[in-house]
């Protein structure tokens, strides 16, 4: 079947396989399957090169192994394609974690061919009841919070509280230490969440920095797995890492945190909150975020070249250990946050995401109002220069008037204090001189000395030019800051709306792949898929959870294609079944009953639908076919005859 070495249709390795690469992969899997069951005779070893990657050589020895290990060079996307093609070709498949940290795909024809792997397993999603899916008595609190968000959008200046002020001098000398070890509270039990509740009552927060980590399979399948909060009630901030997946924690989060997040007098700081944060908080816990400051929107308004949180913190020189934070972000930004237990690096990564949000907000507000300050400085500078020139002119005129007055006064009368009429003017001159010497531009100082108005006004202008603080009323007048606040409140409206995943979209993708490989898809299979999707929605409604937590549509489409009637058949689709099906026998049997009763199962003529191979049985058959068992039988027979003869001889000797 084919050439000794199949030429690759793409010379270089690519993380994204083409349709031709996918066809080559299906051909490789079919060749392995048919050779393993004896439908295809391997006369010579065959080498497949797919997408520039050398796959295992198919030989008599390799196909007789329990499983076939695929190259470790495969990327995550390529491994996903391999799993999809294994479903199309009725092969068992799985992924293992190697000791060197890499992941590897194993394929096998046999139901007992793949090894069982032990490791950290992600938690079941269907046991968590999102607030949005529950039967709720009232949503008045959420509706009131949504109205408050809309009011802040209409008037973003109301986001700035009367107590808000910006100390520029303090910002210039601000030093932000890294996350400390003594200010962390890991909330993973009912007792710890009660402790957090007591601390917030004793020290009500005025600012809350928040972030969350979620399982994000798709926009229809998400779950909050970690919630990080920082409040300034501690000298160096107080960090709360809340584990919603811990026992007795999930149901307590909403009632405790929702009032604080809905309070407009408490500023909530986050980064890109409209992506996952706001929808997840609302869907899972009924939390509506009111009066938020989104540092991502601030970075957009400031036209920063990079808008990621780590990049923004680095630009503002906040990171004390930027390389360490970057490594954590590369490792844990896209990891599976369902996995427990939480490791120390995972907790450190969560703390980094909230630790710098508070100082970052102040620095970004400073920059958002910088243009206004520059304009004020320019205007004040022009006024100062004009005023200085005017006052200098007045000073010169005053000097000239004093000189002319002294010239008109006789030396005798000036010296003796008498005027031209001979009247005594010493006392009068003394009083008048004090009044006349203080011109309309002069002001007596507090210590009794005289300070010219020119000097006083110049100092006032200098104070304006060197302002070190902005109060709340001045902050409300800044246009760029107002735009940032308005967009931040817009993101608070991006609540979860109960999106329904389009069923036929997933099915169309599978049918197109099957048709590309000349594999039929019948109308009865289509009806089975719809029945399975309806069954899934009914189970999810009964358990008050998301339908995707019961089983993904891709899994149900594969079930409709392969039509398994036993648990072994389900595991050929996926060695790790969805948790709801794996852990609940009743749900699993309901699924299999629907498949057994479907018309497409009765009409199926594919031998792989109900025929399963086991490595132990097949190995014995191969030994029989190779004559090895017969050789063993003759050897055993000869040994038995010789042993019997020896016993007879020894018995005769004893009788003598």
UniProtKB/TrEMBL annotation:
The keyword Electron transport does not apply. GO terms for cellular component: nuclear exosome (RNase complex); nucleolus. One of its GO terms (biological process) is exonucleolytic trimming to generate mature 3'-end of 5.8S rRNA from tricistronic rRNA transcript (SSU-rRNA, 5.8S rRNA, LSU-rRNA). It holds the Pfam family DNA_pol_A_exo1. GO terms for molecular function: 3'-5'-RNA exonuclease activity; nucleotide binding; single-stranded RNA binding. The keyword Nucleus applies. Residues 522-605 form the HRDC domain. Residues 406-419, 427-440 have a biased composition (Polar residues). Keywords: Membrane, Nucleus, Transmembrane, Transmembrane helix. Its main location: nucleus. It comes from the Eukaryota. This is HRDC domain-containing protein. The chain crosses the membrane at residues 632-650. Residues 398-446 are annotated as: Disordered. It is found in: Nucleus.
